[in-house]
């Protein structure tokens, strides 16, 4: 699916950009062509004026001097005086060319070189263009008075150099456009791949999430169905046990559904956040109070570490969401720390951020799992597969911290165990000094 979409997007981007490129190239070619034509016409006018000036002022026709002004490779000049022609080039091809030119001048414009119209002089030459053998020629007819009479001058200029320049320009632009289109195709392929990669990864993760959620939901559902079947045929005294099992599995399924709904809201960016001024001392005291007795029942020691502050630290955050993060971390710590262990809850100031931590003396987390434990449904070895944990808690904690523009991570604790840290940007009041109980 994504490969097909990537190909379509690549072709679409290349086509759209290519059309724009070709349009700009066409406009550029037109501008350059007009510039070359204007420059060639200006040079031609200069050459014609130089030839006519020489014929008017010279006492004698010198073809070498005329050749120095008008290159005989491109110019063909024939002089007429009293019905006699003095050809500039004896080549037969050029003579035939001039015959066509003279005939065109007479038929189309009424200009007879043997009897030129009166009043036509050097200042007002007859000029027109015509194609001969697929080459454009600029034609000029003029009458030039000189000291002994009047010349009629016929000049044909083959614009071969201009044609070569234009074709060379076409070739250069074609190579540039072709190269640009190939590069655009490669860039579009690379760019669309980079653009679709997060979407493809998210879809893959979504499919994995659905598969994992289905697997997790199947287990309590299977227990509930089997318990219901067993309760239907069980003795009266055995039914309460099956009832309690169904209730426990129902509660377990409810927790899983709530966790999945929370993550779905985060994915859809519809998770409501209510930022307000929260007292960190009050927040941590409430969390500590909830988990103190629970830890004590499991034979654990829960300590709290608060920084020495002259005033009560106030942070702008969503207090309930931060409590949820602390609850997730403490719940994991209580679940995985063996009897007789210790748990430390606290916070400290870290530059312009507040850094919160939950440390335990449990089995610790291998380095290879430190990044993956925040993935959804990830659980490591058997020691971290208790029934009430689905591998979603740390994912939810990570989303909450991300919405606070903070960071969450885990490190090894000295002497064994793990320390979970997360930060919240910005602080108000408070001291930079922590108790150092880690």
Task: Tell me briefly what this model is.
Keywords: Kinase, Membrane, Phosphoprotein, Transferase, Transmembrane, Transmembrane helix, Two-component regulatory system. The protein is of the alpha+beta class and 438 residues long.
How is this structure best described in words?
The protein is rod-shaped, with a radius of gyration of 46 Å. Residues 427-438 have low confidence and may be disordered. The chain has helices at residues 2-57, 63-69, 92-109, 160-233, 239-267, 280-297, 319-336, 393-403, and strands at residues 75-81, 84-87, 126-132, 135-146, 149-158, 276-279, 301-305, 314-317, 342-350, 353-360, 408-412, 418-425. Helix 1 runs antiparallel to helix 4 (160-233), helix 4 runs antiparallel to helix 5 (239-267) and helix 5 (239-267) runs parallel beside helix 8 (393-403). It folds into 2 domains: 2-165, Beta-Lactamase (2-Layer Sandwich), CATH 3.30.450; 276-425, Histidine kinase-like ATPase, C-terminal domain (Heat Shock Protein 90, 2-Layer Sandwich), CATH 3.30.565.10. Helix content is 53%, strand content 19%. With 438 residues, the protein is an alpha+beta fold. The two termini are 51 Å apart. The chain contains 8 helices and 12 strands. The protein has a 5-stranded antiparallel β-sheet with strand order 2-1-5-4-3, sandwiched between helices. Strands 7-9-10-12-11 form a 5-stranded mixed β-sheet.
């Amino acid at each position: 699916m994504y490969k097909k979409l990537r190909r379509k997007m690549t072709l679409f981007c290349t086509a759209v950009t290519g059309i724009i490129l070709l349009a700009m190239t066409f406009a550029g070619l037109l501008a350059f062509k007009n510039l070359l034509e204007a420059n060639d016409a200006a040079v031609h006018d200069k050459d014609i004026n130089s030839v006519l000036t020489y014929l008017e002022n010279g006492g004698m026709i010198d073809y070498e001097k005329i050749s120095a002004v008008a290159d005989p490779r491109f110019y063909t000049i024939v002089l007429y005086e009293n019905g006699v022609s003095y050809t500039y080039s004896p080549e037969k091809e050029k003579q035939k060319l001039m015959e066509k030119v003279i005939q065109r001048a007479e038929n189309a414009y009424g200009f007879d070189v043997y009897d030129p119209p009166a009043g036509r002089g050097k200042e007002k030459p007859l000029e027109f263009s015509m194609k001969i053998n697929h080459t454009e020629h600029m034609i000029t007819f003029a009458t030039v008075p000189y000291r002994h009479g009047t010349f009629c001058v016929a000049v044909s200029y083959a614009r071969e150099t201009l044609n070569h320049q234009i074709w060379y320009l076409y070739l250069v632009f074609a190579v540039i456009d072709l190269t640009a289109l190939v590069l655009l195709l490669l860039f579009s392929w690379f760019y669309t791949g980079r653009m679709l990669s997060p979407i493809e990864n998210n879809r893959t993760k979504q499919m994995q999430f659905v598969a994992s959620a289905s697997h997790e939901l199947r287990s309590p559902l299977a227990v509930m169905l089997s318990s219901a079947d067993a309760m239907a045929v069980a003795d009266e005294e055995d039914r309460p046990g099956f009832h309690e099992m169904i209730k426990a599995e129902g509660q377990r399924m409810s927790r899983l559904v709530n966790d999945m709904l929370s993550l779905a809201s985060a994915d859809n960016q519809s998770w409501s956040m209510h930022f307000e001024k929260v007292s960190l001392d009050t927040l941590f005291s409430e969390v500590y109070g909830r988990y103190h007795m629970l830890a004590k029942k499991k034979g654990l020691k829960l300590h709290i570490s608060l920084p020495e502050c002259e005033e009560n630290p106030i942070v702008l955050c969503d207090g309930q969401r931060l409590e949820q993060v602390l609850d997730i971390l403490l719940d994991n710590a209580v679940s995985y720390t063996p009897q007789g262990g210790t748990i430390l809850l606290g916070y400290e100031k870290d530059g312009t951020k507040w850094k919160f931590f939950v440390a335990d003396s449990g089995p610790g987390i291998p380095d290879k799992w430190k990044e993956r434990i925040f993935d959804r449904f990830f659980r490591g070895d058997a020691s971290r597969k208790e029934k009430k944990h689905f591998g979603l808690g740390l994912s939810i904690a990570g989303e909450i911290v991300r919405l606070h523009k903070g960071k969450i991570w885990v490190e090894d604790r000295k002497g064994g165990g793990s320390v979970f840290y997360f930060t919240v940007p910005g602080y108000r009041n408070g001291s930079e000094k922590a108790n150092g109980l880690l």
